[in-house]
């Protein structure tokens, strides 16, 4: 039986670029770095940046990490667009909440999620 999620592994091609994206662009805490493995604290969930894997830009599908924005979803999308982040679609509204899909610096799928108002 699984007792929880220990780590989410994210494949990266360029560790320095990925660490800058998660640490500086998204504003998450970088807890350790090395050429092959770096750790990001995403509010108690550890994201491991794995420099030994191929990124999603070489394949279709895969996991998506959803983040909760600190402020309003629209404001955070605008901030990231100003920082050059690639959004793969507009903000979409659903009965279960709002999402804004984007790519990290390595082409992996991410999104912001905001619960319904």
TrEMBL record:
Entries under Gene3D superfamilies matching the protein: 2,3-Dihydroxybiphenyl 1,2-Dioxygenase, domain 1
Keywords in alphabetical order: Lyase
PROSITE patterns in alphabetical order: VOC
Highest taxon, organism lineage: Bacteria
Molecular-function annotations in GO: lyase activity
Does this entry carry the keyword Hydrolase?
no
Q: Does the keyword Lyase apply?
A: yes
Q: Which SUPFAM superfamilies match?
A: Glyoxalase/Bleomycin resistance protein/Dihydroxybiphenyl dioxygenase
- Residues forming the VOC domain are 4-115
- PANTHER family per record: GLYOXALASE-RELATED
Q: What's the protein name?
A: Putative enzyme related to lactoylglutathione lyase
Q: Tell me the lineage of the source organism.
A: Bacteria, Bacillati, Actinomycetota, Actinomycetes, Kineosporiales
């Amino acid at each position: 039986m699984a007792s929880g999620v220990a780590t989410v592994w994210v494949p990266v091609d360029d560790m320095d670029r990925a660490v800058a994206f998660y640490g500086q662009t998204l504003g998450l805490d970088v807890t350790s770095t090395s050429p092959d493995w770096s750790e990001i604290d995403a509010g108690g969930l550890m994201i491991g940046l794995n420099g030994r894997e191929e990124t999603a830009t070489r394949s279709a599908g895969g996991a998506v990490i959803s983040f909760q924005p600190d402020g309003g979803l629209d404001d955070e999308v605008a901030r990231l667009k100003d920082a050059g982040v690639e959004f793969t679609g507009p903000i979409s509204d659903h009965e279960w909440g709002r999402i804004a899909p984007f790519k990290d610096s390595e082409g992996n799928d991410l999104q912001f999620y905001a619960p319904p108002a």
